[in-house]
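**User:**
My hope is that you can spare some time for a protein that puzzles me. This is the protein in question:
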Amino acid sequence: MHLSSLSQPVCRIIVDEDREYEVQVVPMTPTHALWWHFHVQTNLIDKRYVHWAGGDASPRHRADVGWNWCNNLLYAQAHNATRFASRSSRTYAWAVLLKLSDKAGDVIPIGMTTTVPDFDATLAAHGRRGRAFVWYFADAPDDLYRELGIEPPRGVAKVLLDIAVQNRLDLSLSDACTFLHADPAGGPKLVKYYVKKVGMTQIRGHGPRISLWRRFKDREYLLWDDFAARNFCSTLDEFRKL
């Protein structure tokens, strides 16, 4: 995957006013993907959550119902195989996870993501250029922490988004611009999170295909410009040191 460690990863995450967990960003392996698929995806997410299909938002709506992280990892590897000749790590997909270690020292994935640091794409009126692309990401539902007998931390999704920006910055690219696709299966709650909670801009209008496999769809893509991405990441700076 041509993956090296991030220079400034988030390494602490809040549980409540008095407690934090230590976390690490590590490369995703097939073993990690398989663990997530059986312990989180099929046992929790697919059984207890549903896609949004209209109407009011619900805490039980998740866009990642039915996902398979073994496949998501393979997609990233296939993407990289098509770019082998370029030998440029900035266009490779990174597959990483956020891990929490339990008392026995076992690795507990609490978030999964694949990102591309410099994805050349046209985003309607925002034009064509390279930006970080958050391909897939998912944070563990609170159900996982209940099964582990621990309190759920806050802000895992924010840490996963931060990984995409830090990845781009570590490669000394010109800016921190980042975009993603909000799957309609996540419902309006998902778009509201991206806009209200992390400060992304919903892209409106019409445009050409983003890539060979991706069509642009009005209001389904969201964007951070350089300032917005850096401003978001600055809110996590205090958690980058143990």
Q: What stands out?
A: The chain has one domain: 12-239. The radius of gyration is 17 Å. Helices lie at 30-48, 69-81, 142-148, 156-170, 187-197, 226-234.
